[in-house]
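Format notes (please read before filing issues)

Several people have asked whether sequences and structure tokens are stored in separate files. They are not. Every record keeps both together, in the order shown below: the sequence lines, then the token lines. Line labels are part of the format and must not be stripped during preprocessing.
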Amino acid sequence: MPQYTHSYETDPNTGQPALKMSVTTGDPATDTAMAFAPETGSNLYSFVVGGIEYIFGVATMGDSTRILGCPILYPTPNRVKDSTFTFDGRVFTFEANERTHFMHGLVQRAPWEVDTPVESESGISVRTHIHCVPGTAFFERFPIRNSLELVYRLEPRTLHMDFTVTNDDPVYRLPFGLAIHPFFAVHRPRESVTIEVPAKKWMEHEALMPSGRLVDMEDGPADIRTPTPLSGLNLDDVFYGLERNAPQVIRYHSLGKKLTLFADDFFTHSVVYTPSERPFFCLENQSCSTDAHNLYAQGLQEAAHLTILEPGESLKASITFQVSEL
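Then the structure lines:
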């Protein structure tokens, strides 16, 4: 019977407080562990199965380290064009942090609350959450009361991320997108790593900002609907039309392993980032397009896939990482 453990500690690699959870199965090939940093966006920066690390967790920059890991992007995944959008007659403006644009949302580096982990016969789980309420920096920049909850559930070879978004505001509608931004490790040789992204469309863009036009995959920069080696790719593009029954898959041929990213149909988009010769790449399940709020305002609802919750409404959605043999 699997044994589950957890610990709170300061990680020596990040210098950050961490919550670590593990599953010991009696078979080293299926032993599984994870770690996340609650004070830095509840960022998952380690996912280890059978002794293999699948997340590129920490980058060294001079004398400092930075957690890359798997940031949570909310309520504005990826870029907001010119750092502003209008919704229901209200103007939302953010500080530019990438050229003239605002990117990666408001929760990825914020401190989250974390509950006590819970063990069961099937796994170990922990709830972590952040609330947008008056008096917080979150609310100052996005004045709609709301909350985001994430439950990490760890099982042998498997990590579930169960999200709940709630509109806690008594008056305003909540327009949002939700995404993960995992930096996956490249286990070399690079040409032995393939990605499969069974999207239906590529999103045309100019300077990384989507126009809203959906283009057939064969007419885009790379048709990655079938396994494609990283060595031939240099992408930073948005893809549309993903479904849970056709998940994204990473194959590590040098390891004889594959990592499947199961995501609910809510996560219609994926940003694929494959910088050449870097030790990481990203397959980013998103519930919406880059710049979704502005695309929605232009009447491009399908391409944007912006989610809007009425006061008191909630939405649940899940993403699962699962490692298996090739």
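For reference, the curators noted about this record: The longest helix spans residues 292-297. The radius of gyration is 19 Å.
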